[in-house]
Model the fold of this input.
Amino acid sequence: MIRILLAHPSRLVCDSLRTALDNQENIYVVGCATTAEELHFLLPHGNLVLLGTELNGENAVDVLEEIRTTYPETKVLIMGVSEQPEVIIRYIEAGATGYILQNESVEDMMNKLEAAHEEKAIVSPAMAAAMMDRLTHLANLDTPLAYIEARGTQFDELTSREEEVLNLITEGCTNREIANKLIIECGTVKNHVHNILKKLEVNNRHEAASIYQVHAQSSPMAMAA
Done:
């Protein structure tokens, strides 16, 4: 049984989707969330999330990373995206299982929901090619030396607080856990994460954590140890 959680800032969109999905076999809609708080409350009850590109002011990338950290087995499909490979790849790297384009039909959506539930993905040839290019790029950076040369002095641009946040990200902490540890607001943590990703020129916190680990292992102090 596919237990779907709808997450979109528009209650009208949620209700329309629920009406369409309620008529499908093997699907049960566990609820509709229009805010991040509602989403986190309902997450334990679903195994697949249909997520809009934003949720009451929160970017879907941030929401995706929270879901992947707290409920890694839950699959997420981003809905209502335009067919821009760089945008879709960013969602996938943040944890999305798949995507539903703005101009796709209910039948297309159903096919992608079923594919995701069966551990499969439906992508266009153009998207498949873009993903291969991205994998090739990442493979070329898969050595400490390449990472160091590519990053240069970017880590020096981080503030001491951003370094603290990045260190906790590397330990696997969620934004809420980081906020509790550093005794700051969750919104402040999100701002720090945004700045870290921008300064390091990465798409998500997991990529930031990966290059931070390589940077730490390859630093002069680490080598001396």
